[in-house]
Design goal:
311 residues, alpha+beta, elongated
Length: 311
């Protein structure tokens, strides 16, 4: 009898039987469970390698459907190469897909088994009848080495989008603070001096705090729109304009002092250094910025702006 380690049957939140992970001609059904674990359907684990699923009447019968995989690993001296041993195969994860129970294993187990089998195959340690299994393992190992099983599962199940959204929200919660803080001078004079030089403006006016209004557009474009995704949108939401068109605080007062301000200062330092490297030529500076610090789109992606000559 197969043991069950789960008291609760977990629900698969992402993934579909109609959309398996496909690597070459190998199809692997996979899901992301409600607790965030990425799992491979049990039969998918065996089919991925080419190990035929089925029961057994020999000493491996306690492993049920995993019996032939366990026999294969044992007879080819691969068990010692798998850190989890065989207990994990004896105790599959029980999870539900559309109210139907399935057995599966964490996706990382497949990657671990594949690596062990692939190494044995390349060393010529597999028998003639197991060559197909070795070839499948090599194909999978190559794919996992380039991307990683977790990233592949996240992409095919659609979990990647939620994961990135959560990661972005976590970053924004650290970078931006809802409560207005005290005003601390964040923008160095060197940054505005560089902007004024490149735009042929009078630097003495900036020293007196008189900056043209369009400087704010430069800051939105080259600072807040490029330092991280959605920073400008969040700042405008937390620090909106009133009926007269003015904001109650500076945007920098809503940037976390310990987490956000150091990142902002580094970004401003880079922009200032680019200005010096560009010889304070606006076109050259903007070209450098577009290459090194492209704008973030609303979905969090970045697109480098390159001239046709560069392409």
């Amino acid at each position: 009898m197969r043991k069950k380690t789960n008291n609760k049957v977990l629900e698969a939140k992402f993934g579909s039987a109609d959309k398996p992970l496909i690597i070459g001609e190998i199809e692997i059904p996979c899901y992301v469970l409600e607790d965030g674990r990425r799992v491979i359907v049990q039969r998918g684990l065996y089919k991925a390698l080419g190990v035929t699923q089925g029961g057994s009447r020999d000493k491996y019968k306690e492993y049920g459907g995993a019996a032939r995989l366990v026999r294969f690993l044992d007879q080819n001296n691969l068990i010692t190469l798998i850190s989890t041993g065989l207990d994990v195969l004896l105790n599959p994860i029980v999870f539900s897909v559309n109210k139907t129970d399935h057995y599966g294993y964490e996706a990382t187990l497949l990657q671990e088994i594949v690596r062990a089998v692939s190494k044995a195959y390349l060393r010529g340690e597999l028998s003639e009848r197991n060559q197909t299994i070795g070839q499948n393992a090599e194909i999978l190992d190559d794919a996992f080495a380039k991307v990683g099983i977790i990233a592949l599962v996240d992409e095919v199940t659609g979990y990647q989008e939620l994961r990135e959204k959560n990661a972005l929200q976590e970053f924004l919660s650290k970078f931006i603070r809802e409560e207005r803080g005290i005003y601390i001078k964040t923008y160095p004079d060197e940054f505005f001096e560089a902007i004024f030089k490149m735009r042929n403006l009078n630097w003495s006016l900036a020293n007196k705090g008189k900056k043209p209004q369009y400087i704010g557009h430069y800051i939105n474009n080259y600072v807040y729109s490029r330092i991280a995704p959605n920073v400008l949108t969040e700042l405008r939401t937390i620090n909106p304009k009133d009926e007269s068109g003015k904001r109650k605080a500076k945007h920098t007062q809503h940037i976390d002092i310990d987490y956000g301000h150091p990142m902002l200062k580094e970004h401003l330092k880079a922009l200032t250094l680019f200005a010096k490297a560009a010889g304070y030529n606006w076109a050259n500076w903007e070209r450098m910025v577009n290459r090194a610090l492209p704008k973030f789109e609303s979905d969090g992606s970045q697109v480098q702006e390159l001239d046709f000559d560069d392409i």
